[in-house]
Specification:
This protein is an all-alpha fold. It has 10 helices and no strands. The longest helix is centred in the N-terminal third of the chain and has 18 residues, at about 25-40. The radius of gyration is 15 Å and the shape is globular. The termini are far apart. The structure holds fe (ii) ion. Fe (ii) ion binds near residues 31, 61, 124 and 128.
Length: about 180
């Protein structure tokens, strides 16, 4: 299976955010491409589905930098919906919005209308967990993606965020986790 490392649509979206993402840019970009590839490996996607996943992937954590908050899912949804309406793709808003909203859901998401929501949740989990959860993907494939698209400090950045949160709220899970 071909590994996607640079797609015009994703580059256009991400580059518009480059200055705001700043030093974390390479790390976030890598995470976006790894989770995008994991999603494509989890499901045989149509071109339209690929485009939805590409857009959701670029925006799914963007609230970390648009609003500088740990509670970054609501602003990420707002940004992806804004983008979709600018592009005349409002009809995708509900589905792509759910992909972003549910991506840190701990339990599976079940809605037969929108299978991509669960694909996206799994794709993020494979990368977020550094491949500890593979969601049925072969270990060799996960390893290959991790080697092809370097981490570039993304998990260091996540761990720092988690440490900051738990030092202030030792008993409560971060707001982006959803049961
Ligand atoms: Fe993510």
């Amino acid at each position: 299976m071909k590994i996607e490392t640079s797609l015009p649509l994703m580059e256009d979206i991400l580059l518009a955010w480059r200055d705001r993402i700043g030093v974390d840019y390479d790390g976030y970009r890598g995470h976006v491409y790894r989770m995008f590839n994991f999603c494509l490996a989890l499901r045989e996607c149509s071109e339209e589905e690929k485009k939805k996943i590409a857009i959701a992937a670029c925006f799914h954590d963007i609230g970390l930098w648009s609003d500088h908050t740990v509670d970054y899912i609501p602003p990420s949804i707002a940004q992806v919906k804004k983008y979709l309406s600018q592009e005349g793709l409002e009809s995708w808003s509900e589905e792509v919005g759910l992909m972003v909203e549910m991506h840190h859901k701990v339990r599976p998401y079940r809605d037969e209308r929108y299978p991509l929501v669960e694909v996206f949740r799994k794709g993020d989990l494979v990368d977020f967990s550094l491949g500890f959860f593979k969601c049925g993907l072969p270990g060799s494939y996960v390893k290959n993606i991790k080697e092809t698209i370097p981490n570039a400090g993304f998990h260091k950045f996540l761990i720092k965020g988690a440490k900051d949160w738990f030092s202030r709220h030792p008993l409560s899970p971060p707001p982006f986790m959803k049961w």
